[in-house]
TrEMBL record:
The keyword Coiled coil applies. Pfam families: DUF484. This is DUF484 family protein. It comes from the Bacteria. Residues 46-73 form a coiled coil. Keywords: Coiled coil. InterPro entries: DUF484, GAF-like_dom_sf.
Length: 227
């Protein structure tokens, strides 16, 4: 039915009568309320003006909440970037591979507020024993529980299977409620674990994890070339 035909069948009184019978109508069509032109004087329609104003206020409040969330995310990203930069500097300043490895572990534990850090390395490593070092001489084939992870070359965060946790964290595995693991190319895996189940979540971004993994991989490659 065209607008003109509809106007012939419905009068303003019909519309007003319908709205009186259905006062919830505008709550079902809030976009219509925002488009209405309403008188400013007092009277029965004043409540519609209040509704329209309240609707605009709620939209404004929601926009402010979204802006505050974006500002918070930007601030946290800036802090993370600074921590990654500090990690890079610490690795570059290290005089030996052992010092570089210890610097990585210390930075991850302190600056990223993690409870446990593990560096799982394949083949000859040239590093002294340490509680954060897991040596797997048999290479990636000796850790079949990580086969799919190593094949995808992408960091993973969240909750790991019990099998993976015990391989990485040993007796401390029951303490780990969430973790992030990063592939280090042909060298192994870097893992950081937390007792907080929400510290590392599946939906979190992996950009900074990739940057950390790239730094550690480069340090390991430099170490191997110097062996």
């Amino acid at each position: 039915m065209s607008d003109s035909a509809l106007a012939d069948t419905l009068s303003a009184s019909d519309v007003a009568a319908y709205l009186r019978r259905h006062p919830e109508f505008l709550s079902e069509f809030p976009d219509l309320a925002a488009q209405l032109t309403l008188p400013r004087d007092q009277g029965p329609v004043a409540s519609l003006a209040v509704y329209q104003l309240q609707s605009l206020r709620e939209k404004n409040a929601e926009l402010e909440r979204q802006l505050a969330a974006l500002v918070g995310i930007a601030a946290e990203n800036e802090r993370l970037m600074q921590r990654v930069h500090d990690l890079n500097v610490a690795v570059l300043r290290a005089s030996t591979p052992a010092v570089a490895a210890r610097s990585v572990v210390a930075r991850l534990a302190e600056d990223f507020h993690t409870d446990h850090v593990r560096l799982l390395l394949f083949g000859p490593i040239g590093l002294p024993p340490a509680d954060w070092l897991v040596h797997v001489p048999g290479g990636r084939h000796a850790v079949p529980e990580f086969a799919d992870f190593m094949a995808h070359h992408e960091p993973v965060s969240g909750r790991l299977s019990a099998e993976r946790l015990y391989r990485l964290f040993g007796d401390h595995a029951p303490e780990i409620r969430s973790s992030a693991i990063m592939p280090l190319g042909e060298f192994g895996i870097l893992a950081i674990g937390s007792g907080d189940p929400d510290h590392f979540q599946p939906g979190m971004g992996t950009l900074f994890l990739k940057m950390i993994a790239a730094t550690v991989t480069a340090a390991l490659r430099r170490s191997q070339e110097g062996m």
